[in-house]
Amino acid sequence: DAMVIQNPRYQVTQFGKPVTLSCSQTLNHNVMYWYQQKSSQAPKLLFHYYDKDFNNEADTPDNFQSRRPNTSFCFLDIRSPGLGDAAMYLCATSIRATNEKLFFGSGTQLSVL
Amino acid sequence: EDKVVQSPLSLVVHEGDTVTLNCSYEVTNFRSLLWYKQEKKAPTFLFMLTSSGIEKKSGRLSSILDKKELSSILNITATQTGDSAIYLCAGTFMNYGGATNKLIFGTGTLLAVQP
Predict the structure, then answer these.
(1) Which of A21, A34, A49, B41 has the fewest CB atoms within 10 Å, measured from its CB?
(2) Other beta carbons less than 10 A from residue B80's beta carbon
């Protein structure tokens, strides 16, 4: 089945140690998103790619970076994780930029020790 | 600032009950409202509403948008334990280039259905 796959399901890192979260999709969608969801909070958009065009939200910390080497893959890099970065990170896709229906991956739960 | 507010924050019901979840929004240049179900995995799409007063149904779930009241409700009839999840509501808005794909999420309603 076509889907959005995130790896790993759970990730533990140390304070200040760089970490990369992965997302892949078999839907061939143009747009890929990264959302951060902290406990009991709404998912918050960090950035998205429309094809190779990167769109950063104004309030996304510089500590968060992203790469999209091809249509299928997108990575979230946290350069120096802090305790406040512990959260569920959700990857999502949509067919095109004007289509609001998002398809989500299962998320990566990040813990920072 | 655009925001989406959901109520109640949590709800416990018994199997067979009917529940109504609420979502209100303050979104500039509002375009659509979406409902997602989030279990221990990916949020899954339920409904997208753009027109006021038109009910959308999928099995025991239904939803309707009221643009005058800036709100939406999600109804679940004859609840089952498998309905236990967080239900997320999200609003989208129009920008100069057309519809935006940025979803503004509420914090969700945690529904627990007991046997």
Answers:
(1) B41
(2) 12
